[in-house]
Every structure is written in C-alpha cells, then in structure tokens.
Amino acid sequence: MTGILVAAGLSLLVSLLSMPLVIRILYRFKFGQEVRDDGPEGHKTKQGTPTMGGIVIILGAIIGYFGSHLVLMTRPTVSGLLVVFLFVGMGAVGFLDDFIKIYKRRSLGLRSGAKMLGQTIVGAGFAVGVTQFPNGYGYTPASPQLSFLRDFGPPLMIGVFVLWALFLIVGFSNAVNLTDGLDGLATGAMILSLVAYVIIGNWQLRQSCVAYLSPSCYPVRDPLDLAVVAAACLGGCIGFLWYNAPPAKIFMGDTGSLALGGLIVGLAITTRTQLLLLIIGGLFVLITLSVMIQISSFRLTGKRVFRMAPLQHHFELKGWAETTIVIRFWIIQGLMVGVGVGLFYLEWMPR
C-alpha cells in the first residue's frame, strides 16, 4: 500500500509543479491546438491553446512508478514494465501525431495508415510480451484467454490473442481520443477508471494465489505493481486536470489520449478483466458508439442521429454549457465505474 501512495504522490507533484513551465515552453514555440473548421463555434476561442500536455502525464507517471520502487528499494515487475511500455509507446505514437499537426498547422496529423502501424507495433509487442516471462509459480503477466472478472474459456491461439489485444488497444486509445473534446472531460473520466484499477489490483494482491491457494484466488502475476502503475498514472492525471479543467490552459493531445487509452487496456489484460473494462471505461465506449451510430446512419439513410458526433458535441449544439456536459458525463462515468467495481466484488459477497 505504501508503494501505491508514494507513486501517486510523486506523480502528482511532478505533474503539478512542472505544468506551468511546460505551458510557457509550448506557448513560446507556438505548439497550440488547431481547431476543426466544422467544429462547434465555441471552440474557436481554443485555437492556439497549448497541446501535447500528455507529455507531463507520462513524465509524472514514469517518475512516480520508478521513484516508488527506488524509495522502497524494490524491483519493478515484468507486468508493470510491460504496461508502462504500452503506455509510453502509445504516447510516442500520439506525440508524432501531435507534432505533425503543429508543424503543418492543420487539425490532422499522422495519416491513418501510419498511425495504425505505430499502434500495431506497440500493441503487438505488448500482447506477445504478456504471454511470456512466467514466475516461479508459472504465472505469466497475462494468459491468452478472454476474461471478465477473471479468465474464462479455453486458451486462444497466440495469433488470435494478439489480434484481440490489438482490437482493445486501438479501440480504447481512439475512444479516449474521441472523448478528449471538452476541457477536462477525458482526464476526469480516466481518473475514475484508474481509481477502479488501483482498487482491483490491491484486492487481487490480498486474494492472490501466490500468497495462498484457494478456489477463488486470483492467478495474477504482479497485482500490487499493477496497482502502483495505475496509481502513478492517476497522480499524473490529477495534476494535469488542475490545468486542464474548464477553461483549459493546456490540452493532453493525442500524446495523452493514446497513452491513457493503451494504459487502461494494459491494466485490464494483466488484471484479467478485459470485458469488465467495457463497464469501467463505459463513458469512452458510449462516446465511441455515438460516432459509429452517426456514421452508420448517415451512410445507410442519409440522416444523422445526433446533431454532431462525438456525443458531447451533440449536447453543445443543443445549448448545454461546456461545464454542464463535463460534470454530467463525469457522473455517468462515476456510475459506470461504481457498477464495474461492484461486479468485481460481487463474487465475494455473502450468499
């Protein structure tokens, strides 16, 4: 538990204290947000707001994670390092996307094929890695199975598992990217999801098959270190939200959204809660579905279901204030996280 607190505290301090300097540097080099011409009219005022703030979240999380191990004189685990690899790798892809947008002064960065290639390389490396490195009990960071509250069903062929993992990684990294359309929206929703994974990792540690074998124990390789990773990223996001809250002084950009989307998938795969992520990350799923529904409806019928997609912009065009949308969407995400954590604990409830 000490490691969790140290990681979150260090990351929070780094994020809070470094953000003003980062904002000044980004302003000096004119690394500002390019706003879409067809976006809501109110977004025109956000033109030029510094972006790529996800760099600070990543920096804070890395210092928090490794600093925690340094303070407590413990070694990082393979599971933790693989999730950090996915987190940083996806952030690197997002950084390239952001840099191209800024350099070419346009709202589109990497071409879709190049962006997908980068996500695939990083995601495939993670997916293969988590099926390797067994510990003394034979537990690998993840197993090539589907999971909800724990693994179920027969093992998948490694190729099928990698494709499944890539589907989740690409899907959620882009889902967080779509959600990051209003000040503080994606950051606040991600904070709630990360709280859930701190709780899940801590509970799995207390019921770990490594500590004692029982019919209901969790064969998770490194549950405590996964909670430390989640806590480190949680602290970074809280510090970032201080400056990203409406009206935002900085945006996370694709650097942050792709990194955080990859992160929660990495945590879901290594804690054996892949399908539970659809609930814990429920807001990201709903917003992505709104885009899919909008595109499908327009192509099939020529009509739009929403005034604009993603969903948050629909309510903007209906006249809702930006802060109203953000807070109400946070409430929805909080309820979804509550349901997800409740389901996780359900099998331990007295019957």
From TrEMBL:
Keywords: Cell cycle, Cell division, Cell membrane, Cell shape, Cell wall biogenesis/degradation, Magnesium, Membrane, Metal-binding, Peptidoglycan synthesis, Transferase, Transmembrane, Transmembrane helix. InterPro entries: Glycosyl_transferase_4 (IPR000715), PNAcMuramoyl-5peptid_Trfase (IPR003524), PNAcMuramoyl-5peptid_Trfase_CS (IPR018480). Mg(2+) binds at residues 177, 254. GO terms for biological process: cell division; cell wall organization; peptidoglycan biosynthetic process; regulation of cell shape. Its main location: membrane. The chain crosses the membrane at residues 6-27, 48-66, 78-96, 116-133, 153-172, 184-204, 224-243, 250-269, 275-298, 325-346. It is an enzyme of class 2 (transferase). It catalyses: UDP-N-acetyl-alpha-D-muramoyl-L-alanyl-gamma-D-glutamyl-meso-2,6-diaminopimeloyl-D-alanyl-D-alanine + di-trans,octa-cis-undecaprenyl phosphate = di-trans,octa-cis-undecaprenyl diphospho-N-acetyl-alpha-D-muramoyl-L-alanyl-D-glutamyl-meso-2,6-diaminopimeloyl-D-alanyl-D-alanine + UMP. Its EC number is 2.7.8.13. It holds the Pfam family MraY_sig1. The keyword Cell division applies. GO terms for cellular component: plasma membrane. The keyword Cell wall biogenesis/degradation applies. One of its GO terms (molecular function) is phospho-N-acetylmuramoyl-pentapeptide-transferase activity. Its cofactor is Mg(2+). NCBIfam families: mraY. PANTHER family: PHOSPHO-N-ACETYLMURAMOYL-PENTAPEPTIDE-TRANSFERASE, PHOSPHO-N-ACETYLMURAMOYL-PENTAPEPTIDE-TRANSFERASE HOMOLOG. Catalyzes the initial step of the lipid cycle reactions in the biosynthesis of the cell wall peptidoglycan: transfers peptidoglycan precursor phospho-MurNAc-pentapeptide from UDP-MurNAc-pentapeptide onto the lipid carrier undecaprenyl phosphate, yielding undecaprenyl-pyrophosphoryl-MurNAc-pentapeptide, known as lipid I. Belongs to the glycosyltransferase 4 family. MraY subfamily. This is Phospho-N-acetylmuramoyl-pentapeptide-transferase. It comes from Streptomonospora mangrovi.
